[in-house]
């Protein structure tokens, strides 16, 4: 039965190909890189990819078939055109039950449309907005996992990609491409993938570190030159600006190593660090605000003991300014996420200051970041990786920080007596040190439940403090007190 299915699949694929395409397929089939080596930076002798004119041709030749596993590079490096071609091919050829593994993806996600559920099942390692409705409708799924452990899924065979769709810079004169803005788990995925299809884009920044992949490891390549997805910097609200002020003035020391995500709160913090000295960056991702601080001489990375004088990151999304800054810049090392986010590596950074956000926090300090009640929203990401790393910092000067506005857009308190029914705990109460809102800073380390409730109610919105005190008494059987 399996043999018949395979023959049917090949017949279907070959009928859509030109004679040149068939020749190219035969060439690629004779030389998969497993014959040689699976280290992406090591050239494979006498091998080059099959260069094609369109993404549609590339997907056809890659032999996408029912019940396969496909890995997709994400963030700013999402190969949007390959995803479009894959979806079209899968629907046209009635391919069924293809499982797509990916982190946050930019752009449209046509494979996640309800009408395509029989063809594709998205399985997010971190949920983005374009697949969130499908996850909550049950036509897609997710894997709760720490960011630093995602490469293990490939290295230990939990996921065995039949195909990887990636996005790289053009090869240089030595044949080396760059994974550019997204290294994260890509290196592990392609090292264990049977076939690799690459979108080659002159707009992809050439970055260094673990980003290098030799063109000989690509099975199929198609040039498609299009600007990367951008996230323009938005002006922070008054509340976000105040949160940034509290953190910058009270919790970030000169010589600190920073981890910040993307968004208005991290941008607000970065915008207020212009008088700081010798800051460093060791973060799974970073944004435009880093560029300004480098240009001001505030970020030097010269206090680091590891990767001294270098920004360390793993993926990013930002504006054209950020991508231009990253291009051919040896000041930046883009490294694999199982290294960057390893709490033991994070703990070695001087004055490690990890700044993360959340959806809600209860009065004992439990942090929910991945769901709104039972509705999945994002994922674990790197929050606990860095919160744990900062908490166990070797110099004992680390600061694990959770930052959030005190109320939602509808005026509901984000500090709750108990987490919403069904909400998951991403960061447990034992490792939270600081919770910051526009109302101030709650210091939680070494505090009892009674004291924690007191600290957190202080930074709640004034409109909700009385109700929180009553609820705290009902829960703890004692009034919150310092």
UniProtKB/TrEMBL annotation:
Asked whether the UniProt record includes Transferase among its keywords, one would answer: yes
**Segments forming domain Acetyl-CoA hydrolase/transferase N-terminal:** 100-230
Q: One GO biological process from the UniProt record?
A: acetate metabolic process
Which terms in the Gene Ontology molecular function aspect does this entry carry? Answer: acetate CoA-transferase activity
Alphabetized UniProt keyword annotations: Transferase
Coiled coil ranges (UniProt) are: none
Q: Tell me which domain of life the UniProt entry assigns to the organism this sequence originates from.
A: Eukaryota
Which first-to-last residue range defines the signal peptide?
Answer: none
Could you name the Gene Ontology cellular component terms for this entry?
mitochondrion
Domain Acetyl-CoA hydrolase/transferase C-terminal residues, every copy: 318-472
InterPro entries cross-referenced by the UniProt entry: AcetylCoA_hyd_C (IPR026888), AcetylCoA_hyd_C_sf (IPR038460), ActCoA_hydro (IPR046433), ActCoA_hydro_N (IPR003702), NagB/RpiA_transferase-like (IPR037171)
Question: In its keyword annotation, does this UniProt entry include Transferase?
Answer: yes
| Similarity section | Belongs to the acetyl-CoA hydrolase/transferase family.
What name is this protein filed under? 4-hydroxybutyrate coenzyme A transferase
- What is the organism of origin for this protein? Harpegnathos saltator
Origin organism lineage: Eukaryota, Metazoa, Ecdysozoa, Arthropoda, Hexapoda
